[in-house]
Amino acid sequence: MIIEPRTRGFICLTAHPTGCEQNVINQIDYIKSKTKAKAKVPKKVLVIGASTGFGLASRITSAYGSDASTIGLFFEKPPKEGRTASPGWYNSAAFEKQAHKDGLYAKSINGDAFSNEVKAKTINLIKKDLGQIDLLVYSLASPVRTHPDTGERFKSVLKPIGKTFADNTVDFHTGEVKEISIEPSSGDDIENTVAVMGGEDWQMWINQLNAAGVLSKDFKTAAYSYIGPSLTEAVYRKGTIGKAKDHLEATAFKITDSLKTINGKAYVSVNKALVTQASSAIPVIPLYISLLYKVMKEEGIHEGCIEQIERLFNERLYEENIPLDDEGRIRIDDWEMRDDIQAKVLELWKEATTETLPHIGDLEGYKTDFFNLFGFEVDGVDYEKDANEMVDIPGLQA
Q1: Could you tell me if 65 and 41 are in contact, meaning their C-beta atoms sit under 8 angstroms apart?
Q2: Rounded CA gap, 292 and 302, in Å?
Q3: Number of domains the chain contains
Q4: Is the separation of the CB atoms in 389 and 318 below 8 Å?
Q5: Which residue from 153, 275, 282, 359 has the highest number of Cβ atoms inside 10 Å of its Cβ?
């Protein structure tokens, strides 16, 4: 079938298998072009949230940066005749196809990572095939969570706290810059968001894996966070999602304390603002990223997910003395948050209108990255050709 992008708001309802595959191959080629990681690198890796964005980049970097065996966990929609799968499905199929061709172990589990059933299934697979893992990357971005013990369902919200937030954003489909107003959180909004996006599930994973004896000595685990500039803090870092990130970051210390017997360590990496399915949903962020991309590309320091994670693995996570900020976090957002970069973005923000944005920002770069997430507008792909939507993931566990 001929597959075209069909969008609704900040999501695309279709995905292109060939485009997704080419995207994955491009990321693999990037890692292959880099020097192999240091001697003390992960060899057996579990990535929770492995099918898109930073999670997918983490799986690719582990596999092709240090020849690691990887298990990927995700919750993706498979294809049906005449209906495409979600992009993460096609990404995972493409990764496993390449990994198996290159002689790398790669298997996947498709299911609810919050559930005890999927945790047990993952532990059994580790025991059967790998024995133990030495790295777990926690990169979940889900809007809802059903608690595995109580059955209670939580839904996260993106809201400011205390007062209404108003500032400019951009509709990246039309290029219209307009003011947006967001009412503050109320009721159980904060608690629900923390329940979904905080550190409780990360801790539960570690507890169950450790109890099962499948964590190696000197095991490491990393989760991903974001801070961002003052421009976005009311709706992000000082909003409901920020409370969840605070909880996630505090959980890293608790996990480290719980792993003393195996000398295990938990870290939170604060990553750069990038176009992901999650970030596209956050008001103000598309305008900020459009301006940030322009500035960082001009400075020659722009990175996508794969560049960020390669730098994290090779220059931070496996250093003998990992450089941390005052809160104990790894800061791979260091280039984004440079004073000169932020000063330039702030000046452009003041000038941003529907008319000026095409000149002072990189809205086209934002849009391209957005469509690339779904396998569209990828260089070298012929979108006029029939594509087979019925793609299997080679190592998917039944």
Answers
A1: yes
A2: 9
A3: 1
A4: no
A5: 275
Rg (CA), the chain: 20
In single-letter form, the type of residue at position 368 comes to T
Assess contact for 17 and 375: CB atoms under 8 A. yes
Spatial separation of the C-alpha atoms in residues 70 and 64, rounded to whole Å: 10
User: pLDDT digit string (tens) for 49-101?
Assistant: 999 999 999 999 999 999 999 999 999 999 999 999 999 999 999 999 999 99
Q: Which residue has the tokens 């500032």?
A: 167
Report the alpha-carbon angle 62-68-74, nearest 5.
Answer: 65
* pTM score of the predicted model: 0.96
> Is 75 within 8 Å of 52 (Cβ atoms)?
no
Domain that holds residue 271: 7-153+188-283+303-334
| Residue 267 belongs to domain with CATH number | 3.40.50.720
- The first and second tokens of residue 292, run together, are 């940030």
Give me the active site residues, please.
Answer: 236
- Report the alpha-carbon distance of residue 396 to residue 398 in Å, rounded: 6
